[in-house]
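Lecture 7 notes: from sequence to structure.

We start with a single chain of 257 residues. Read the sequence below before looking at the structure.
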Amino acid sequence: VASIAQMEEKLRRGKSDGCSNNTLWESDQLSCRYIMEEGKLNVLLRMAAESKYHAIDEDPDGTKTKAAGESCGVDGAELAGSMERDIGTILRCCLEHTEAVQSLDFGVLSEHAAKVLHNLQVLAAAAEGSVCDLTGMQEVNVLHYLEHVGLLVEDLGEDRVMAVWSDAKICSGLIGALAAAHSSLNRESVVAGTRALNAIFDSEHFQSHEELHMVEADQVALMALGDKFLDELCKDVKFRMSIRSLSDYVRRKKMGK
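Now the structure, written as tokens:
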């Protein structure tokens, strides 16, 4: 299913006949439609969250997973990694569609994202900024999940999303993860995380309750993102305009306003 979903998503992006504005139900993405019609989207999200919780909190060195695999005659680490990548691919493809984002359990997503973003910072600190290949893993995919939600904040209801995100400290997590691990992420993922961050700064909830989203240490880390990667990304005028709320906030803070 993951392979089919990825192939269908590539075909959708490659089309130039205006079909990109179709709803999920009008599209040719049968795999994503199947997941939604069978009510499996949040099941997959909870599977991703629970397996990552186990990996981070209960089996950080992978010994339990390895032992479980050996008892069944398989490579436990490889199997666990394949499952994480496949679930992540399906979720990421589904969340390209408004219908899927609207049906998400935002509480589960926010708790999961907060935990994974923190783990990304831990991994980066342990590896002194250079993390092993994270392609397809949740540490990368949550940046895209959050981006997709952020792009639809107004349609979803800003208070509904931002209240949950502020409780989970998603803003703080994004700043910390991008600051610590940006060099280990590809450009697409850094852009996704930055756009998710911009959605927070663009919200009335943030502008009215900044203290619920960030602490002073987060502001210091945010100011350092320019030298790390943000200034380079903003050389692209189109991208700079897409994160205007974030870039304006950084500019004002640097001017002392």
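The chain has a mean pLDDT of 88. Keep this in mind for problem set 3.
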